[in-house]
Amino acid sequence: MAGGMRKRLGDMLVAESVINEEQLMQALEIKKNSDKRLGEVIVELGFTTEEKICKALERQLGVEYVTLANVKVPQDIAEKVTGALLRKHMVIPFGYDPSSLDVIMLAMADPMDMTAIDDIEMITGLQVEPYIATAHEIMVAIDKNYGNEEAQEAADAYAKERGDYAVEELSEDDSVSDSPIVILVKTMIEQAARLRTSDIHVEALENRVRIRYRIDGSLYEQISYDISLMPAITARLKILAGMDISEKRKPQDGRITQIVDRIEYDIRVSMLPTVYGEKCVMRLAMKQALSRDKKDLGFDPAEMKVFEHILSNPNGIILVTGPTGSGKSTTLYTALSELNTEDVNIITVEDPVEANIDGINQVHVNVKAGLTFASALRSILRQDPDIIMIGEIRDGETASIAVQAAITGHLVVSTLHTNSSAATISRLEDMGIESYLVADSVKGVIAQRLVKRLCPNCKKAREASDEEKDIMRVPLNESCTIYEPVGCPQCNNIGYKGRIGVYEIMEVNKEMSGIIARNESTEALKEAALRNGMNTLRMAATKHVLNGITSYSEMVRISFDE
Q: What average pLDDT does the structure give for the chain?
């Protein structure tokens, strides 16, 4: 039965011209040697997207396509059906049919999967009404409904087992792939990835292990376990990250690669001994997420024009500045992808290399081996580069080589930790660079921050107070609507969902390079930049507040020093 059904999925997609015959043949060929579903193979080959397949099936089968943003599995059903079963079939029940309590609505990645329908009908004793949803949305929904519970079950199972064997037996070869701790750690990482987490914190407190996720810049507690699990969790993470399991007194670093829902994540792991045990922080990065389309960075049309103009300089230094985690790397990588044509030689020096870009030569700093930013740069200059990206200018030596490179006809892009674009210039001078050299070499500085986007589903409008209008430079007699975060299931009750960049772009023109060369104050430079049309971070963030993209409090947070 399923075989006949299978063939039809491909035929339907061809009939709906989602893919062509040739692509179908290629996908079926690959499917022969794998246990993946045909739909998965087609998406993996990049022929189409999950959404397009769902819409085509909706038209062909007359089965409704649903999105599962805030689905709750009915309690009585959740007690009968396990998360594992739902994952196996890639389905999730999301409610009873309004017209009959004997019929349950089931979102399916493959609505023709009769085995899945029979299984669910048998276990629940109800009839199934199939609906279509994307595999990714189904996985996220199963996670939200079952994730913590499954992790808790694994934790309980471990506590039971613990009587039987000691932690030390978690060996390097780790053949126990279904052991509770292995499942627990895997679940933790998968759940984090699906919630768009940037960092996972595993912390040993006095009597519990606390797991927190950093989502859009803020930490939220996800779950906590009994402290007895700590040694096993850390041992498992050390095995995955290639660290020394027996070393518990020194900090260690490592990395893990894990695939979650067909996306490859590169996870940097850091262990630090604390009073109650080792604290582990994992930084999750998607291999392909760093370089975005420049449209998605959050520049408005005027800023985009200046950004492109600065990037078109044949030589000079372009600096991106801001605190840690303000999206500097993303901006740099996007700029590099933009400049990455086959007629230029681009070389980067980074610590560490954060994402691999095709066609760019990337060098990984290794201080132990004597490969510092400065020494790597010297070698790079002998490699006939056109464009050089330096991960970060940390000291005078690196700064002076960067300036030399810029003056001798190279384009150098790099980052610095300063608060505003004008302050960056004095930072370079503090590093010992002569002001006339700074004036000659620096072509543009982009200071940036990230503000949280309000969840469009639940944000609430209100009138701005006089004090707020004053700070946002809105005339007091004008009415002014701003929005507040509320919180709903779609944004995990946070009120915000995702982030957007806020930029202060200072292009250095003749007047400004004169001010720099004469070593005038940062204030004088900032005034000249404002005269020449620069927006400060506060002005840029205020635009987002007035457009309802972010909240007033976010604007104040990122422009606190203005």
A: 87
Q: What is the pLDDT of residue 174?
A: 47
- φ, ψ (nearest 5 deg) of residue 396: -60, -35
507-518 average pLDDT score = 94
Q: Which of 53-62, 119-128, 381-390, 443-452 has the lowest mean pLDDT?
A: 53-62
- For residues 505 and 304, what is the distance between their CA atoms, to the nearest angstrom? 10
The H or E element that residue 234 is part of is helix 230-240
Determine if the peptide bond prior to 352 is cis (ω within 30°). yes
**What number is the average pLDDT over the span 227-251?**
91
Judge whether residue 26 has pLDDT over 50.
Answer: yes
Q: What does the alpha-carbon distance between residue 11 and residue 121 come to, in Å, rounded to a whole number?
A: 28
367 pLDDT band (50/70/90 cuts)?
A: confident
Given a contact cutoff of 8 angstroms between Cβ atoms, the answer to whether 39 and 110 are in contact is yes
The CA R_g of the chain, rounded to the nearest whole Å, is 27
> What DSSP line would sit under 235-275, residue for residue?
HHHHHHTT--TT--SS-EEEEEEEEETTEEEEEEEEEEEET
The answer to whether the beta carbons of residues 375 and 351 sit under 8 Å apart is no
11-44 burial: b if 16+ Cβ within 10 Å, else e: ebbbebebbeeebbebbeeebeeeeebbbbbbbe
Provide the pLDDT confidence category of residue 356 given band limits of 50, 70 and 90: confident
**Best CA proximity match to 411, nearest among 351, 342, 345:** 345
Which helix H or strand E contains 512, and what residues bound it?
Answer: helix 510-517
Cα distances (Å, whole numbers) of residue 284 to 140, 193, 195, 354: 17, 8, 11, 11
343 exposed, middle or buried (CB, 10 Å; 0-12, 13-18, 19+)?
Answer: exposed
pLDDT band for position 176 (50/70/90)?
Answer: low
**Under 8 Å CB-to-CB from 359, ≥6 apart: which residues?**
340, 342, 346
Q: If you ran DSSP here, which 8-state letter would residue 70 be given?
A: T
Cβ-in-10-Å burial (0-12, 13-18, 19+) of 520 comes to middle
Three-state SS at 106: strand
Q: Sign of the C-alpha dihedral, residues 456, 459, 462, 464?
A: negative
pLDDT number for residue 166: 46
